[in-house]
Amino acid sequence: MPPRRKSNEFERGRAVAWFQDGVPKREVARRLHVSISVIVRLIQRFTATGRVQERRRPGRPKKTNPREDRLIERLALQTRTASSSIIRRQLRVATNTNISQQTIRNRLHGFNLRSRRPAVRPRL
What we know:
This protein is mostly helical. It has six helices and no strands. Helix 5 (about 85-95) crosses helix 6 (about 100-110). The relative contact order is 0.09. The mean pLDDT is about 90.
């Protein structure tokens, strides 16, 4: 099964406009390369709320904002050997944001930055 692709607000608006212009749901789904159930749910949501935006999802809000996330990424790229505790201290000095080392590691993981450890060769 291919990974899910989120439609953006423009595509959702276009789908509703096509449907309102009389284009069948199946044809709308074919044009956008999504299943018909996606279009059916979109039309139901639009008729109930008058909006095409996705509803807000539950979950804990992020502790950092996008600006702080970019700073974490920049600090990690500037000093490739910096640990999460060093980046945490630098972030606290720069933005007065107190977050855990695990949060730093989570953000770096989100930027596809991994820790580099020397390869350990087994002894014979």
